[in-house]
Amino acid sequence: MMRVLIADDDTSLLEQLRETLASERYTVDTASNGIEAMDKLYDAVFDLVILDVMMPHIDGLSLLEQMRKGGINIPVLMLTAKGD
């Protein structure tokens, strides 16, 4: 079973994504900020990470950079609510 980590500070969107993926039989972990996400990335193995670009403490792009520097090379999808 595929394990996914979703990190987003928008609790409504976070829960909607979690429910949708869980209904498709994915194992889903969530984090509400970048620090929590980084902790989970070092505690478990994930097949995919979904990151919000703008999060408190560590933004999604900085978290992605830290992941790559730390040798975490799993696929990442970036989300943003920002307009053009």
UniProtKB/TrEMBL annotation:
<feature type="modified residue" description="4-aspartylphosphate">
    <location>
        <position position="52"/>
    </location>
</feature>
<dbReference type="GO" id="GO:0006355">
    <property type="term" value="P:regulation of DNA-templated transcription"/>
</dbReference>
<dbReference type="GO" id="GO:0005829">
    <property type="term" value="C:cytosol"/>
</dbReference>
<dbReference type="GO" id="GO:0000976">
    <property type="term" value="F:transcription cis-regulatory region binding"/>
</dbReference>
<keyword id="KW-0804">Transcription</keyword>
<dbReference type="GO" id="GO:0032993">
    <property type="term" value="C:protein-DNA complex"/>
</dbReference>
<dbReference type="GO" id="GO:0000156">
    <property type="term" value="F:phosphorelay response regulator activity"/>
</dbReference>
<dbReference type="InterPro" id="IPR001789">
    <property type="entry name" value="Sig_transdc_resp-reg_receiver"/>
</dbReference>
<keyword id="KW-0805">Transcription regulation</keyword>
<feature type="domain" description="Response regulatory">
    <location>
        <begin position="3"/>
        <end position="84"/>
    </location>
</feature>
<keyword id="KW-0902">Two-component regulatory system</keyword>
<keyword id="KW-0597">Phosphoprotein</keyword>
<dbReference type="InterPro" id="IPR011006">
    <property type="entry name" value="CheY-like_superfamily"/>
</dbReference>
<protein>
    <submittedName>
        <fullName>Response regulator</fullName>
    </submittedName>
</protein>
<keyword id="KW-0238">DNA-binding</keyword>
<dbReference type="InterPro" id="IPR039420">
    <property type="entry name" value="WalR-like"/>
</dbReference>
<dbReference type="Pfam" id="PF00072">
    <property type="entry name" value="Response_reg"/>
</dbReference>
